[in-house]
Each structure stands twice: as structure tokens, then as C-alpha cells.
């Protein structure tokens, strides 16, 4: 049991948010393996609300272009679920630290707004990934369906890591939910929750050269006796 736990912890530590991919597409069988593993996560009443729309080849390029055009213009931000109302305390500090680590890794000065915007737009270029999975959930299940899908996203990224595939979950893509829905022909009764860009990592790109920290178990647990 200890060996199994240690192997699982090693997998968790090996996973990271990849921000630079090689263009090589994945075999369909590998993508199916990832999804086949992720589908075993729990969900409320076993509803299994997750659905994936996965792009490949020219479909990825067309989607990337559409997203970049929207993000580079004055297109309205229209997520299906409301954004956080704010980040405070430890949450704000973690968010800030992650951003600064990225800027430091790619050599962007914190005062360079143009370079920071260009880096932000990399989100909508899908970090050059050859594939993106759009994660949707039935609108009738609301935030609890979204919560279940969060577990699926975690399992997807871990299964990908186990197979040598890099990934990054991206809530930013949900900024343009109507565009995503229209471009990919998604039904109106499903919420666009996030994307997962994935493929083989570019190990030499500086954006992949840092790792974020995690709060300790002691900082997370509140014991009640």
C-alpha cells in the first residue's frame, strides 16, 4: 500500500501546467487511454456530467485563430458561470506568485505591460498545443455538475502525465463561451466550463522551467475534536 501511495504522490508531483507544446499530434489511442482512465472519478449520483469536445489537426488551428481574434479585439467576455468576485489573502498571494514566476521564467519585467499582455494571449493560442479538450456539463446540474467536472479534469491531467503527455487546464477559454459553443457546434443546454490544452511538452521552453508551490497539509486541515 505504501508503494502505491508513493507512486501516486510521484505522479501528482510530476504533473504541472505546461505552457509550451511541441506541434506533434497524439495518437488517437493515447487520447482514448487518457479519457478511459479519467472517467472513473466520482460524481454526484453517478451522473458523470462531463463531456469532451477534442480538436485535432486543422480543427485545432481554426479554433486557435478564432480564440486569438476574440481575445485580441474588444469582444465581450461572456462566461457561462460567474468569475470569482475577488482573490484575497493567501489566494491573492498564490495567484500573484504564480504570475511572477512565469514572468521571471520567460524574462518579462513586471512593469512591461505589453509583454505581459502578449504572454496572456498565449492562453488563447492554446500555448501551441496540437489538441484542446473543451469540458462541458449540463446546465441543469449547475455548480455541482461543474464541481464533478473538476474531478474529471484532475484525473485527465494525471492520466496524461502517466502516459508522458503534458497538459494545462484553462479557465480563460470559458471567457468566450458563446464563441466556443458556436464555433464547435455545442448545444445550448451545456455549460462551457474550461479547456484542457494537451500534447507533448517542449522541455526547452523557459515557460516550462518553473513549478508552483503547494500549501502544506497543516495549512489545509482544521481538526475538530
- Oligomeric composition of the shown chains: single chain
Order of helices and strands: HHEHHHEHEHEH
Per DSSP, the total helix count is 8
Content of β-strand:
5-15%
Mean pLDDT: 96
Largest sheet: 4 strands, antiparallel
Q: Ends: how far apart?
A: 28 Å
Rg, nearest Å: 18 Å
Low-confidence stretches: none
Structural class based on helices, strands and sheet pairing: alpha+beta
Helix content: 40-55%
* SS elements, strand count: 4
Describe this structure in words.
This protein is α+β, with helices and mostly antiparallel strands and 225 residues long. 44% of the residues lie in helices and 12% in strands. The protein is built from eight helices and four strands; from the N terminus they run H-H-E-H-H-H-E-H-E-H-E-H. Strands 1-2-4-3 form a four-stranded antiparallel β-sheet, with helices on both faces. Helix 2 (28-38) packs across helix 6. It starts with a helix and ends in a 5-residue tail after the last helix.
Core attributes:
globular; single chain; 8 helices; 225 residues; 12% strand; alpha+beta; four-stranded antiparallel β-sheet; 44% helix
Amino acid at each position: 500500500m505504501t508503494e502505491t501511495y508513493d507512486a501516486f504522490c510521484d505522479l501528482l508531483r510530476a504533473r504541472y501546467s505546461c505552457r509550451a507544446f511541441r506541434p506533434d499530434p497524439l495518437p488517437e489511442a493515447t487520447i482514448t487511454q487518457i479519457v478511459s482512465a479519467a472517467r472513473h472519478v466520482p460524481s454526484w449520483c453517478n451522473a458523470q456530467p462531463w463531456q469532451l469536445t477534442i480538436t485535432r489537426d486543422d480543427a485545432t488551428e481554426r479554433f486557435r485563430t478564432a480564440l486569438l481574434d476574440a481575445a485580441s479585439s474588444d469582444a465581450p467576455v461572456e462566461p457561462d458561470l460567474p468569475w470569482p468576485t475577488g482573490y484575497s489573502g493567501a489566494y491573492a498571494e498564490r495567484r500573484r506568485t504564480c504570475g511572477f514566476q512565469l514572468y521571471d521564467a520567460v524574462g518579462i519585467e513586471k512593469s512591461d505591460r505589453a509583454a505581459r499582455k502578449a504572454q496572456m494571449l498565449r492562453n488563447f493560442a492554446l500555448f501551441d498545443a496540437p489538441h484542446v479538450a473543451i469540458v462541458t456539463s449540463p446546465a441543469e446540474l449547475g455548480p455541482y455538475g461543474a464541481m464533478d467536472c473538476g474531478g474529471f479534469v484532475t484525473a485527465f491531467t494525471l492520466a496524461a502525465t502517466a502516459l508522458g503527455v503534458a497538459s494545462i487546464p484553462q479557465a480563460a477559454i470559458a471567457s468566450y463561451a458563446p464563441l466556443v459553443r458556436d464555433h464547435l457546434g455545442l448545444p445550448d443546454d451545456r455549460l462551457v466550463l474550461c479547456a484542457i490544452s494537451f500534447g507533448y511538452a517542449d522541455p526547452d521552453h523557459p515557460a516550462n522551467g518553473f513549478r508552483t508551490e503547494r500549501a502544506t497539509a497543516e495549512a489545509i486541515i482544521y481538526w475538530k475534536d
